[in-house]
Design goal:
Spo0E like sporulation regulatory protein, protein dimerization activity, 2 helices, elongated, mainly alpha, Spo0E-like, Spo0E-like_sf
């Protein structure tokens, strides 16, 4: 997840917030974040 966060920051700096490439990376990261949140909730 850390690598994808760093990639997202690079894409934001290079392409901006609304570029399709940036949005795609952001959506990939969203999937990982939601999966981790679900894992943490299920562990309770």
């Amino acid at each position: 997840m850390k690598e994808l966060q760093e990639k997202l920051h690079r894409y934001i700096e290079k392409y901006g917030f609304t570029d399709p490439r940036t949005v795609e990376v952001s959506q990939e990261l969203d999937v990982l974040v939601v999966a981790e949140q679900r894992r943490l909730i299920d562990a309770c």
